[in-house]
Amino acid sequence: MSAEPLLKVQDLSVTFRNGDRETVAAQGVSYELAAGEVLAVVGESGSGKSVTALALTRLLPPAPGCALGGSVRLQGVELLTLPENQLAKVRGGSIAYIFQEPGSSLNPVYTIGFQIGEAISLHRPEIKDVRAEVIRALTEVHINDPARVAEQYPHELSGGMQQRAMIAMALACDPKILVADEPTTALDVTIQKEIMDLLARLRRERGMSIILITHNFGIIANFADKVQVMWKGRIVESGPVAQVMSTQTHPYTKALIACIPRLGQRRRRLTTLSEELKVSR
Fold this sequence. Notes:
- Helix 4 (112-123) packs parallel to helix 7.
- The protein is α/β, with parallel strands linked by helices.
- The protein has a domain at 95-174.
- The protein has a 6-stranded mixed sheet, with helices on both faces. A 4-stranded antiparallel sheet has the order 2-1-4-5, with helices on one face.
- It has helices spanning 49-55, 84-90, 102-105, 112-123, 130-140, 146-150, 159-172, 189-206, 241-246, 251-258, 273-276, and strands at 7-18, 21-33, 38-42, 66-74, 77-78, 95-98, 177-181, 209-214, 226-231, 234-240.
C-alpha cells in the first residue's frame, strides 16, 4: 500500500465574483506532493499559478468575492473547510510562503529580527529564547553578521538579502511545505543562482517539500522533481521534469521551452505563442 501523500489537491477551482460577473482563475487542478519532493508550477503571468498556491490555505478574498471548489488535504486534513482558528496555524506553520518582491512583503517599520521573531512566537510558542532562534534562522540562510542584520530595517538590505530574510522567516516556523512564488524574479542573475542553490540546500538538509512557482523553465531542470504546466487556469501538461523537458505533448509547453535562451543559438525572433498553439486545447 502506497504512503499517503503530504499534500493532495483534487479538482481545485478558484472563481472570483464581482456582482453578476464571474472569472474562473483556476479549474480542475489536481496533483500530489510527497514529503521532501519539489514540484515546479510553470506558466506565464495570469495562468493561475499564484492564485492556485494561495488557495491552498485560503489566502484569497472571502466569499462571495471568491469561491473555492474541490479538495486540498494536508496529511489527510481538509483545508478548504478547516475552521479559521485552526487554519491560522497551518498558514506559515505547516505551509509557508515566500514571494517575488520581498521588499513589499516585509513590513518597512519593523526590524528584520522583530518580524522573524513575531512569526516564531506565533507558530512555535515553545521557543523560550526567540532572539537566539532569530539569529539561528538568519545564519542558516548564510546571512553574514546575523546579529547586526536582525537590528536592521528592510530598506537597509539589498534585494538578495531581503529575500534571504524572507526565507529565514519562513523556515523559522519549521514548515512541512515551502511555497516559493517567483522567488528570483526581481534579482539579478548571480543572486538568482544563490537563492536557488540556497533553496536546494535547505531542501536536502530539512527534507522539506517545495512548490516552486515560475514562468522560467530554465531554472527548474536541476531543481525540481516534477513539473506541471498551467495555461488559462488549467494544468495542460505534467510529469517528471526530465520527461517534460525532453518530450512535450502540448504546444504551450513547447512555446515556453522555446523561449529558454541558449548560448550559441541565434534566432531572428522568438516564436510567438500564437504560432505554437495551432492545435486546440
